[in-house]
Amino acid sequence: MSFLCVDRRDLVHLNSLLGGPCEPCISQLPHYPNMCRQLVLGIAATCASPCLKTKFYEIFDCTLLATQCSATVIKVVEEALKSLESLNLMEFSQTTRLWNITNLGRAAHASAFECDIVSFIKKSIECFQTHAVLSSDLHLIGLVTPYELAAAYKPNYQKMWSMWARMKDPEKEVMRLLGVDEPVLVRHMMGNAKGLARSGEKSEYHKQMFTTDTGRLRRCYLTLVIWNIVQKQRTVYQTAEELEIDAGRVQSLLQSAAIYASSMSSFCKELPTLWRVGLLTEGLIKRLYFGVQQEILALMDIPFMRPGRARTLVDAGYVTPKDIACAKTGEMVERVGMISVKQCEALIAAAKVFVKKQASELMDEGVCVVCECKWIFFVLNLFAFPSIYSFVRICLSVYACVFPPAFTMLHSDSTQSTQQHQSV
Predict the structure, then answer these.
(1) What is the pTM (predicted TM-score) of this model?
(2) Per-residue confidence of the chain (424 residues) as pLDDT tens digits?
(3) Which of 196, 34, 111 is nearest to 125 (CA)?
């Protein structure tokens, strides 16, 4: 039971709100083609084998669209299947009349990328795999920069030009591979470049981030913002002040880039030729989430650890959580500096909890491995059963698998009694 407390003056409005007609609820599937295609891809991905077209009809018959306008279901499914086939996400067999999802379609479903953008994303990954520059993180960060956020940030071309001028030759080569070179940057800085074309379709607008100079430049600007934090050891606030961006938007950009990197990793894992890029992007997720460099990433697993504090600890010689857990309070205060005794005690306690949790998880994994090995020992003895001695060994193996701690105590007691018997 629930109660609603209102003022007497609002009773008339409340009665009209509760007794009035409800707002119309209309299915949006016909108006959002990408939603329909994602639903069709999800159905095809969950099927263990190629399926008939009627399978998609059965699922769509359970939607609000079928309740409101059942005649539209066939048209929506037909358009979605035709579009997915043209994008090479689904394939149709003329002999068996079955629909099957392709590897690219599975990648699109696993990553939840827009169906119209999948081909551009795959092309950019293949370009990265061919011309990857790994002397710095700039090229990899450019790959995982969210394209859908590029339209929301207006670049400061003067700041971007000053950052470009201070870059080394390998980093300028990365900028060229990302679609930004000196003539393009100068043209935009002088205001002589063509802007992005406004389009009603969101996917058509997002395509310009891959196909036009302005779109690539906007996306590259976000790449420089992330790179300034992740590799150049700038904080969020320093980067926001340097590039004249709100600090909250910079933090939001890092979180979005971490999510995009996770989607990129899932995308690459579904394509056999791109698994190497998937491993690289997977290693970048936590760094983007915390906004830190690789050398201080291990300390960020400690609860309530901040990037600035982690950098100070690494510079003082505390590289791993184990180093902090084994440290002494007075020694840490002396080596780190600008930290109180109370803060050191809290930090050491948090590191000890984390290390203890890690050790417990490793111990659980070790017990599972030992139990599996004991079952293997039991199965091997089952095939060699020539004597009473083997029968006893099998019985002990079963007992050890069911009661590991009791078996350990029994084994230690029998060992001690044997040694006492030998000494006597």
Answers:
(1) 0.74
(2) 678 888 888 888 888 887 777 777 888 888 888 889 999 999 999 887 888 888 899 988 888 888 888 888 899 999 999 999 999 999 999 898 899 999 999 999 999 898 989 999 999 999 999 998 888 889 999 999 998 888 788 888 888 888 888 888 989 999 999 988 888 888 888 877 777 777 656 777 788 888 888 888 889 999 999 998 888 778 888 888 888 888 888 889 999 999 999 999 999 999 999 999 999 998 888 888 888 777 888 888 888 888 888 888 888 888 888 888 888 888 888 888 888 888 888 888 988 888 888 888 777 766 665 565 655 555 555 555 455 455 555 555 555 554 454 444 434 444 444 333 334 3
(3) 111
Which one-letter amino acid corresponds to residue 249?
Answer: R
Note whether 136 and 127 are within 8 A (CB): no
- C-alpha 229/C-alpha 398 separation (Å) is 56
Q: What angle separates helix 388-402 from helix 341-382, to the nearest 10 degrees?
A: 150
Element spanning 345, H or E: helix 341-382
- Computed on alpha carbons and rounded to an integer, the radius of gyration of the chain in Å comes to 31
